[in-house]
Amino acid sequence: MEKILPSILAALIPFIATYLSKLNKASVRKNLMEDAQKKIDFLDKYFQVSSKFLHETEIESLKLQLSAEIQEVKSQVSSLDKQENLTDYQRLTVVQKVFLTFSPVSVLGWLWAVFFYITLIFSVFLFWGFSLDEASNFSTETFVQSVQDGTSIFVFGFLMIILLLFRWLAIKEYKRKSNGIKQ
Length: 183
Description:
Number of helices: 6
Number of strands: 0
Radius of gyration: 28 Å
Oligomer: single chain
Shape: elongated
Helix content: over 70%
Number of domains: 2
C-alpha cells in the first residue's frame, strides 16, 4: 500500500498540472475580456460626451483615434484566441516532448507526428518479429540469435535514427509555428 500511493500521486501530477494550467488560462482570458469591455465602454462614453462639445472636423479626427483604439482591443482579444490552444514548448512535459503528445499546429507538424508514430509502431512489430522462431512462438533465444547476426542491430539503429529525425522535425515545426503565432 505504501508503494501504491506515491505511484498514484506520480501518475496524477500531469493531470493536476493541466487542470491548474486551464484555470490560469481561463482567468487570464476573463481578465482580458473584462478589461476590453471596460475600455470599449469608456471609449463609447468619451465619444458621446466629446461629440456634444466638438465641431464636425474634430469629431471626424476623434472617430479615427477611437477606431484605432478599438482595433487595438480587437487585436489583443484575437491574439489571445490564437495563443489559447498553444503551449510554449518549454512548458511541455517530458512525456509530451518524447512521445509528441502535444497537438501539432500545422499540416506539416501533423505529417511529422504521423510518420513518427508509423515508424514507432513498425519498430515495435519488427522487434516482436525478430523474437519469433520457425513455429511462430516468441523466443528469447531467437531474438538473441537475430541480434548476433548483426542485421537486426543495423535495422533497429536505422529505424531509431528515422524515428528521432521525425520527432526532431515535428518539434522544430511546433516551435517555429508557436513562435510565429506569439509574435
